[in-house]
Amino acid sequence: MTEAVVAGLVAGYGLAIPVGAVAVLMVNMTAATSFRTGAAAALGAATADAGYAVAAVLGGSALAPAVRPVLGPLRWVAFAILAAMAARILVRGLRRGPDTAGDTMAHRRITPLRAYVTYLSLTALNPWPVLYFVTLLVGQQAQRPMGGGESLVYLSAITFASVSWQLLLAVGGRLLGGTLTSRRGRTGTAAVSSCLIFGLGLRMAVG
Q1: What is the pLDDT of residues 172-196, one digit of tens each?
Q2: Residue 62 CB neighbours (<10 A)
């Protein structure tokens, strides 16, 4: 169970940590409104992440028997995809400067409910979590299928990681202003996330 908790936390933070366009919108909106509104937006984004994680776990469990005969190649294919994701996040973090796309939305009147629905929708429409969780979970299930209890713990850890990071961004919106969305802040979060994702893929490949 401990292994499932750690793996879930790493997977959740690996997906959540990069400060992309949606996170920039959230931080700027929270800075211009209230923590309550920002927290609602954070829970909306985390709900979408959790939904994709559940779908990936269920799909990975169903596909595991079929892919187990090609376990060796599958591990390295999964590692290659995750490594490419890590590289993409790092490169974008190094290249992109502060994002000002959220300036307009940040000053609009928005209720907590509207913030929740908006950020749930924005995150759900992003194909990145689908590819990330499916790749990670199919490789994990083919290597060592998780039982029902382990899967529940794994999903709970992913959800906790996503919620805690999104709420941290909301707090950051109130306390840190543009620090997290500055060029240096975005580069730092991109580097951390890249290391987490690359480590997950490498561990799966050589495990």
Answers
A1: 777 765 666 677 777 877 787 788 7
A2: 11
What is the domain partition of the chain in residue ranges? 2-206
Q: 106 to each of 10, 101, 115, 121, 173, how far by Cα in Å? A: 30, 9, 11, 17, 11
Q: Find the mean pLDDT for residues 115-142.
A: 74
In sequence order, what are the residues at sequence separation of 6 or more whose Cβ sits closer than 8 angstroms to the Cβ of residue 141? 60, 61, 63, 64
Q: Are the beta carbons of 137 and 8 closer than 8 angstroms?
A: no
User: Residue 112 burial by CB count (10 A; 0-12/13-18/19+): exposed, middle or buried?
Assistant: middle
* Residue 55's pLDDT band (cuts 50, 70, 90): confident
Q: How far is CA 127 from CA 52, 67, 130, in A?
A: 10, 23, 5
Pick from 86, 98, 99, 94: which is nearest to 14 by CA?
86
